[in-house]
Amino acid sequence: MATVTTDKEPNMRTIIVIFPAHPEASLLLRPHLHEAKGKRPEVEKEPARGGGEDVWSAQAEAEVAQGGGFPEHLVVMVNGLVGSADDWKFAAEQFVRRMPEKVIVHRSQCNSATQTFDGVDLMGERLANEVLSVVEQRRGVKKISFVAHSLGGLVARYAIGRLYEPNNKTKSSSEKSRDEGERLEGFIAGLEPMNFITFASPHLGSSGNKQNKTFKFFSNVSLMFRFFHQLPFLCGLPFLERRASETAHLLVGRTGKHLFLTDNDDGRRPLLLQMVDDCDDIKFRSALRSFKRRVAYANANFDRIL
């Protein structure tokens, strides 16, 4: 695994790993995670009012009954293309079992199956509304993190832009953490932004199958480049992928246009280009900067989707 940290953005890291990108795929390589290490806290689950499912530890609930506090850190998990909340079932349970007193996990369900064809913006709006519903239901939460897979990373970025609230106040002494005089950049749905983590997310969009001529004499390198920027339903066939930017919208609707940067709604720039900076009504860049930690995970090999 390799980690690259930029000088200008010390909290922004790109981490390359060789594990499968899908949330469920790593279970095949890491069966030891299923093994119990002592007595594991039981997991409680409840459908959220706005859709999806909330997961937390029964141990935390017992402490509330004894006068303790409920977990204050909300972790929102977002699925990718043609995915669902079930993709995060195992991961959500592991979160609450390893940090029973700290987190409550919400598995988002507002963008499932063919709903993921509706476009990044519409999915982002739905996710933002779902998060607001969860925060309204769980009034005790104070912090928020996002964990997203594949297309879900773009959806989450759009949603936080919609949920962002600038902060003009310095944190009180009781709220300061590691750094003296630390100042919050802003809030997400009224909560303190903590972690924004994506797995195999196409943050730069996709460009179809484009052979890199620079490496044409190196067959192994060329083969690797052929597998970049693919859509799973094209089966890795180069002649289909070369036409992907022209036909993706026929298969995955507006999402295809957004991924290949071919959208121009009302003559505006492609949505993914808009999302690299703040817009008049949605503060994409400021929202992302507000998180204490921002991490993008990607596979070094064998990720034919990216």
UniProtKB/TrEMBL annotation:
<feature type="domain" description="DUF676">
    <location>
        <begin position="227"/>
        <end position="305"/>
    </location>
</feature>
<dbReference type="Pfam" id="PF05057">
    <property type="entry name" value="DUF676"/>
</dbReference>
<dbReference type="InterPro" id="IPR029058">
    <property type="entry name" value="AB_hydrolase_fold"/>
</dbReference>
<dbReference type="InterPro" id="IPR044294">
    <property type="entry name" value="Lipase-like"/>
</dbReference>
<protein>
    <recommendedName>
        <fullName>DUF676 domain-containing protein</fullName>
    </recommendedName>
</protein>
<feature type="domain" description="DUF676">
    <location>
        <begin position="72"/>
        <end position="214"/>
    </location>
</feature>
<dbReference type="InterPro" id="IPR007751">
    <property type="entry name" value="DUF676_lipase-like"/>
</dbReference>
